[in-house]
Design goal:
The complex is a heterodimer of chains A (180) and B (342). Chain A has six helices and five strands; from the N terminus they run H-H-E-H-E-E-H-E-E-H-H. Chain A is of the alpha+beta class. Chain B has one domain. Chain B contains twelve helices and two strands, in the order H-H-H-E-E-H-H-H-H-H-H-H-H-H. The termini of chain B are far apart. Classes of the chains: A alpha+beta (180), B mainly alpha (342).
């Protein structure tokens, strides 16, 4: 019974003498390769030219601050629990008097590390985060020579306070609003 | 009495030809990579200088600074002799090629041919065959199974394809009544290019030229994917550079020979009707020859990035069962035509 129109009848076809010379086929092939010379090139000249990345791209993490420049993270540890690769580790500390401009809530992460070699960039940490603190971004993890350089601490993860140092995560946020 | 002018002429010409051959070989590597790239919808080397034109210099410099390894089990003398022989013979073949019409400085004639041998073609075949020894010695002296296999393939391939190549040349010689390359070229003045009289001979010669240069689809001696580089597996640094370089010189010389034997060499239809002075005519003739050469170098690369490699039995069958009978037929047909028709 014929199910689709795509099926092809296999045959053991012997070549006739013109085909056995192979020259017509070779000329045909050479015309094809010659036509490729004028095609549009597929190359992206990487450092100068970057491939457009989707808004929902899951790249390097960022620890967000709120509008007043205070760290969102309260070191609840939900991201570390959610992480299937067990890449996240943190140490909590209590906010002292006078640090209200640094941390949004009474508890904060004194140490927060992500092992980028373990991380699988699944995005479960941002899904788990109740405080809007951790997001994946469209930045790409740079290469390095030493394994211990891939353990990213707060110095690399927390975004800066200056307006131009803020990391845009609207693409990821929109992703969540759509899914929720 | 020694003709000092002649010696000076020849020394200048030899130096110029060596430099030009080496420069063209160097830039063939660049051309090869660019052509490979555009055929595969890529851009190719573009980092070293504008459009990457300094890439060959960077590659050459890299070869010099690489560690030069000689394997312990290798035959030291032959290991060095192999690449030297290969590149020497590659450069030697350019001696008999007429690069253009003569220049005239007053009464003095400056011929653009190093040696006007009356058995030029025999010299060519002889020197090309010696080139095979370079590969064989290199592959054997490495004391490496892959290298030996590559060398074995190279030698049998070269022997197999020299026969039809010689036969194709014989049909040309029958038509020109001369073994002298300049006479063969001058015979094709106007538009009497040999390719129109000897299309079959041209096809056979072209296929054999690919095989002799170890170019794809006949690059079995190298075959990166099967033999880890073939005969030059154990070579490194500038010795490897010599092998690769010599191959590009061979390609340049074969393109020149094809242009000379079948495409009228430095002649171009209508070149005489321009009414140029002899020196200008010489310059134009050189440009015409080089245009033809560059087309064939491009053709070599074009074929390489189109066709896959032959299997070894296919290579041997093509050589012995197809090309040799065809070339014998071609010689007989040419002889019959010259005897009974003309």
């Amino acid at each position: 019974m014929q199910l689709t129109n795509r099926s092809k009848v296999a045959s053991v076809k012997t070549l006739n003498w013109v085909e056995q010379i192979y020259l017509p086929a070779i000329i045909k092939g050479m015309i094809i390769t010659f036509s490729h010379i004028f095609r549009k090139k597929a190359t992206v000249k990487y450092p100068e030219q970057k491939r457009p990345i989707a808004g929902v791209y899951r790249g390097l993490h960022v620890l967000k601050r709120d509008e007043q420049g205070r760290e969102n993270c309260t070191a609840c540890g939900l991201c570390a629990v959610a992480c299937p690769a067990e890449a996240i580790t943190m140490e909590a500390a209590e906010r002292q008097k006078g640090e209200e401009n640094l941390y949004r809530e009474e508890k904060y992460a004194a140490m927060y590390e992500i092992n980028m070699l373990r991380c699988i960039f699944c995005g479960l940490c941002e899904e788990a985060c109740p405080k809007d603190a951790i997001y994946l971004t469209d930045r790409i993890l740079p290469s390095n020579y030493a394994r211990n350089k891939f353990i990213y601490g707060k110095d690399l993860l927390v975004e800066g306070t200056a307006p131009d140092q803020r990391v845009d995560v609207t693409g990821r946020k929109k992703n969540y609003e759509m899914n929720v | 009495m020694i003709d000092w002018w002649l010696i000076l002429d020849k020394v200048i010409l030899v130096v110029v030809i060596f430099v030009v051959s080496l420069a063209i070989a160097a830039y063939s590597t660049y051309g090869e990579r660019k052509i490979a790239a555009v055929i595969q919808d890529r851009i190719g080397p573009d980092r070293a200088g504008p459009w990457g034109i300094f890439q060959p210099l960077a590659d050459g410099g890299k070869f010099f600074f690489k560690e030069d390894i000689t394997p312990n089990a290798a035959d030291k003398f032959l290991f060095i002799l192999g690449p030297s022989l290969f590149i020497t013979t590659a450069l030697m073949t350019s001696a008999i090629i007429p690069w253009g019409k003569s220049f005239f400085f007053g009464e003095h004639e400056f011929s653009l041919q190093v040696a006007d041998l009356n058995v030029g073609i025999l010299y060519l075949l002889a020197v090309v065959s010696i080139g095979g020894y370079g590969i064989m010695i290199g592959g054997w002296a490495s004391n490496n199974k892959f290298a030996l296999l590559g060398a074995l393939r190279a030698s049998s391939q070269m022997i197999s394809y020299e026969v039809p190549m010689g036969m194709a040349i014989i049909s040309i010689i029958l038509m020109s009544n001369s073994l002298n390359l300049r006479e063969i070229v001058d015979m094709q003045q106007g538009f009497h290019w040999n390719v129109f009289y000897q299309p079959l001979g041209f096809l056979i010669f072209l296929i054999c030229a690919f095989a002799e240069c170890n170019r794809a689809p006949f690059d079995l001696p190298e075959s990166e994917s099967e033999l880890v580089g073939g005969y030059h597996t154990e070579y490194s640094s500038m010795k490897l550079g010599f092998f690769l370089f010599a191959e590009y010189i061979n390609m340049f010389i074969s393109s020149t020979i094809i242009a000379c034997l079948f495409f009228g060499g430095y002649h171009f239809p209508g070149i005489d009707s321009l009414g140029l002075s002899p020196n200008w005519a010489a310059i134009v003739s050189i440009c015409v020859l080089f245009a033809k050469i560059f087309f064939f170098i491009f053709f070599f690369m074009w074929v390489r990035w189109t066709l896959p490699r032959f299997r070894y039995d296919q290579l041997m069958r093509l050589g012995w069962k197809v090309l040799i009978p065809l070339s014998i037929f071609n010689v007989l047909a040419t002889g019959a035509w010259l005897t009974f028709v003309k």
